[in-house]
Structures are given as C-alpha cells and as structure tokens.
Amino acid sequence: xxxxxxxxxxxxxxxxxxxxxxxxxxxxxxxxxxxxxxxxxxxxxxxxxxxxxxxxxxxxxxxxxxxxxxxxxxxxxxxxxxxxxxxxxxxxxxxxxxxxxxxxxxxxxxxxxxxxxxxxxxxxxxxxxxxxxxxxxxxxxxxxxxxxxxxxxxxxxxxxxxxxxxxxx
Length: 169
What we know:
Layout (H helix, E strand, L loop, with lengths): L1 H42 L3 H4 L10 E2 L21 E5 L3 H6 L4 E7 L5 E3 L2 E3 L1 E6 L5 E8 L2 E6 L4 E4 L2 H9 L1
Antiparallel strand pairs: 1-9, 2-3, 3-6, 4-5, 6-7, 7-8, 8-9
C-alpha cells in the first residue's frame, strides 16, 4: 500500500513538473516571438515611407478593411513559384505613386487566391520595402484600388490609372 502511494505521489509530482515546464517553454516562446516581432518593427520604421506626400494625396480615401491572410514583413521569396507568380513592376508611374516601395504583381496560379469582402482576389500588387519585406498589398475591388498597409491602415483610390493599368496587364 505504501509502495502504491509513493508511486502515485511520484507520478503526480512528475505530471505537475512536466506541465509547469511546458507552460514555461510556451510562455518563453510567446515572449521570444513578441520580442522578435518587436525587433522587426524596430528595424522597419513603419511611418518612414507612409509620411511621403504621395501617400497623402487627395485621391486616397481611408477605408475600413478586412484582415488579409498575409504575414507582414515576410520576405518576397516566401511565396512558392509553383503556386504564385511574382513579377516586378517596372513602371515609372507606380514608382512615383508608391515612393520607397517596390511593387510586384502577384498572381495565384491555382486561382485560389484570398477572399476580401466576398470577392476572390487572385491578382494583387505586393509592395516590399528596401529590406525585401512585405509592407502593403493592393488589389482591385468594386472599381477601386484597395491599398492595405502593415500599419493597419487601409485606403481606396478610384483614380483611372489603376483600372486602366489593371486591364492592360
């Protein structure tokens, strides 16, 4: 009887120690991830490019937006070439409208894309900073170019440039 009691007690103590240890590792992982995320934000000043006058133009109208299934600051090479096509946009007008960013035309080869307010998006423009990190996504929706930024701000622009460019490419 004493033996069974000691074995049960040992198993109980071992079980609590394992749970506490796993909880500590999980907590440390969250903290590490948070520190890692914070350091990436520190390395990429959010408002460095957004303060440029081109982003304050009267054609841009703030809009509420749905979350996108992207990971901000993800490097461009993250997207598998077998599933996605990423093609650099070499166009002076894009450069002038989005200073400090490098636009890439993104296309989901499988046609799955992502959903935005009931609309499947399979073609978009992914904007990368000088560190080759994703900082914005733009796409056409209901006749407007939707521009969602990593700083959680969303804008729309109904300038004919976007609609005509989209139809040409």
